Amino acid sequence: DTAVSQTPKYLVTQMGNDKSIKCEQNLGHDTMYWYKQDSKKFLKIMFSYNNKELIINETVPNRFSPKSPDKAHLNLHINSLELGDSAVYFCASSPSTGGNEKLFFGSGTQLSVL
Amino acid sequence: GNSVTQMEGPVTLSEEAFLTINCTYTATGYPSLFWYVQYPGEGLQLLLKATKADDKGSNKGFEATYRKETTSFHLEKGSVQVSDSAVYFCALRGLTNAGKSTFGDGTTLTVKP
User: Fold this and answer.
1) Rounded to an integer, what distance in angstroms lies between the CA atom of residue B68 and that of residue A83?
2) Rounded to whole angstroms, how far apart are CA atoms A50 and A92?
3) pLDDT tens-digit map of A19-42
4) Do B99 and A105 touch (CB under 8 A)?
5) What is the pLDDT of residues B23-51, one digit of tens each?
6) A3 inside 8 A of chain B by CB
7) Chain A residues touching B100 at Cβ < 8 A
8) Which conformational region is residue B13 in: left (phi greater than 0), alpha (psi within -120 to 50 degrees), or beta?
9) A64 pairs with which residues across the strands?
């Protein structure tokens, strides 16, 4: 069973559309994250939730809205998509916010905005 | 704030060559240090980690030692294989800051037969 799974794997859409990416983890972790990876492979944190509570909210346009219905799920909704939103979005989880814990990543969602 | 600086890539090596990817960091307190690897088309996965000064992390022939005096965590492998071709990320994670991990910019390694 995949530990951190996200859907869809590929998402191609037009500018101005609204889309969602879903993420689920079956590891029993308390903390989940969304990262954005650009075409140069730079990785930037967007959001983090701990036990369904938002704890990290980086400088991200408010067109991006995360939602965590329960500890095992963290979804990302994007309104009014722009060309610059094209990237690979990774969901990740960790047991808690502890300093020595590794991250478990999903396989990514490649978003292409045309 | 915390930051991680990685050796710029891309790096191209021949099979069985020695690999070093430099990583230095700036952080308050005593963070844990990590190397993650990303194979083409996949998410990142942990390669190795070290949680305190002078610790050595090792996995799959890769090693890195947590050097507090030089604030470094350089990745090394004695003999690379074609299958090691990937993007390597150095990262740190502190005890505070809500579990936020800070990543370097990644170093792309290509190993040629």
Assistant:
1) 42
2) 12
3) 999 999 999 999 999 999 999 999
4) no
5) 999 998 889 999 999 999 999 999 999 99
6) no
7) 45, 48, 56
8) beta
9) A78
